[in-house]
Task: inverse folding
């Protein structure tokens, strides 16, 4: 290795911080004196600028539980979203489900419970299973093959 810097996670407060690997100890902002031989040093680098980025990234992960998304995927291009948007304003649940099933059928010529689940998650109202059960009950969809449906 031989890199000058690295990232450690403070055993007391759980936050990441940059350290000089040549040092024996470092003190965290929480006041904890950390013996570097007792912690794992990750993300070795020779660049202090890169080190600062690595620390910021590590802390973002620690705080947020995941890496910050570089950019949010636009949902505008998602045709499933268009179906969900179209169905959202419909008050009657059965009519709403019918519109979703019809939209999916027009989009893909047939659909699966996974497709329904996708739209259901965007709609946030009914579960895919509920939708499918009610649609079948009212003969608004038929099963063209195992697990594949079309609206009537
Ligand atoms: Zn600390």
Result:
């Amino acid at each position: 290795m031989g890199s000058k810097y690295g990232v450690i996670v403070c055993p007391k407060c759980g936050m990441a911080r940059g350290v000089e690997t040549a040092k024996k100890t470092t003190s965290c902002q929480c006041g904890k004196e950390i013996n570097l031989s007792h912690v794992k040093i990750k993300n070795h680098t020779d660049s202090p600028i890169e080190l600062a980025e690595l620390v910021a990234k590590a802390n973002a992960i620690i705080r947020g539980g995941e890496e910050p998304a570089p950019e949010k995927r636009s949902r505008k291009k998602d045709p499933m979203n268009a179906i969900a948007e179209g169905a959202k304003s419909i008050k009657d649940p059965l009519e709403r489900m019918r519109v979703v099933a019809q939209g999916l059928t027009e989009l893909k010529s047939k659909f699966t419970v996974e497709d329904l689940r996708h739209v259901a998650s965007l709609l946030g109202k009914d579960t895919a299973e509920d939708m499918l059960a009610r649609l079948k009950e009212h003969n608004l969809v038929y099963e063209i093959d195992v697990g594949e449906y079309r609206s009537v």
Summary: The CA atoms of residues 27 and 33 lie 4 Å apart.
